[in-house]
Design brief:
This protein has one domain: NAD(P)-binding Rossmann-like Domain (Rossmann fold, 3-Layer(aba) Sandwich). It has ten helices and 15 strands. It is of the alpha/beta class and about 290 residues long. It starts with a strand and ends with a helix. The protein binds NADP nicotinamide-adenine-dinucleotide phosphate (NAP).
Length: about 290
């Protein structure tokens, strides 16, 4: 096991679950906010100098950060609110910092939270392009890596599934964006966090790219499962993508709006995962029914 792990994004939705599963005293969380307790280090993915300091005594890095407001990019607030300016550049910055600090021999594993579909090169989605740039920077760094490509991650504290459960409970109908045929492979956040922690220091995890998710469902099937699990029977109302993109165009300018035209494209992106395993590093991935039931 490694002596010191740097968890970037450890205050985030997935990062918090990873932090809970890591041994206390064995890791520190990089956060933009002033270090409020032991185990935190102040730093910013977009500030290479802060990263040079952060990697000083580190032998493993977990990169699980994402810009605030995702999946709505807000370039008018600054490039750090875009995939290219944050995910791509931020991950490249970590590699830069490791090299500037001459720590490439010291870092024994770089674990990166990429995303499902990052292998689709023929794409217009900046989300995927940024993930590809980040993955490439890690792969070319010479540092042993483990890249995870999870599908949609859900669990307590998430941004989407909890909304779906609320829709099922309180709306007179269940809204579905698009035609309901968007494929997804939802993965329960505790499963994902445990897989990541189990991969730390494992020889067989090194220099691997691993897709993660439960067996494929369509969004229509997800809606039906959420309704069944909440004990509700409501009609599914399909909202055409073009209409949602138009609404998203205006909504994106509202602070904290969860939609924009490109966010609608992101949410309806058709990705089929061909290399899924039902069990990864000793963790049996739960079905959506099992995950929601917890
Ligand atoms: N959620 C999903 O369904 C899903 C699916 C597939 C892949 N992923 C990937 O998993 C990773 C984590 O996702 P998430 O949903 O857990 O993200 P999240 O909840 O949005 O977490 C973002 C974290 O990033 C940190 N952050 C933001 N700006 C930063 C900066 N400039 N410097 C350093 N840290 C910064 C924040 O920490 P501070 O505020 O403390 O600085 C925050 O805790 C992302 O790479 C995402 O693409 C997520």
């Amino acid at each position: 096991m490694f002596k010191k792990i740097l968890l970037i994004g450890g205050n985030g939705f997935i990062g918090k679950y990873i932090a809970q599963k890591l041994s206390k005293g064995n890791f520190k969380v990089l956060s933009r906010h002033k270090a409020h307790s032991e185990g935190f280090i102040q730093g910013d993915l977009l500030d290479v100098n802060s990263l040079i300091k952060a990697v000083e005594d580190i032998d493993c890095i977990i990169q699980s950060a994402q810009f605030a407001g995702h999946p709505v990019e807000r370039p008018w607030l600054g490039s750090e609110f875009t995939y290219m300016g944050f995910d791509a550049k931020g991950t490249q910055n970590i590699i830069k910092a490791i090299h500037y600090a001459k720590k490439q021999g010291q870092i024994k594993q770089f674990i990166y939270l990429s995303g499902a579909g990052a292998d689709l090169t023929d794409t217009n989605f900046d989300w995927l392009k940024a993930k590809q740039i980040a993955e490439k920077a890690i792969q070319e760094s010479g540092i042993p890596f483990t890249i995870f490509r999870p599908s949609w991650v859900y669990g307590k504290g998430d941004r989407s599934m909890s909304k779906f459960i609320w829709f099922a409970k309180y709306l007179p109908f269940f809204p579905v964006i698009g035609d309901g045929n968007t494929p997804v492979n939802p993965i329960y956040v505790e499963d994902l966090a445990q897989i990541i922690v189990n991969a730390i220091g494992q020889e067989k995890a090194l220099n691997k790219i691993i897709e993660l998710g439960s067996p494929e469902l369509t969004m229509k099937e997800v809606a039906e499962i959420v309704l069944k699990m909440t004990g509700k029977q409501k009609p599914l109302i399909y909202h055409p993508k073009t209409m949602m993109k138009l609404i998203g165009f205006f909504a994106q300018f509202i602070p904290f709006s969860p939609i924009s035209p490109s966010a609608i494209d992101f949410l309806t992106m058709k990705v089929h995962l061909a290399n899924l395993e039902p069990e990864v590093f000793g963790v049996k991935i739960k079905s959506l029914e099992e995950g929601i039931a917890i």
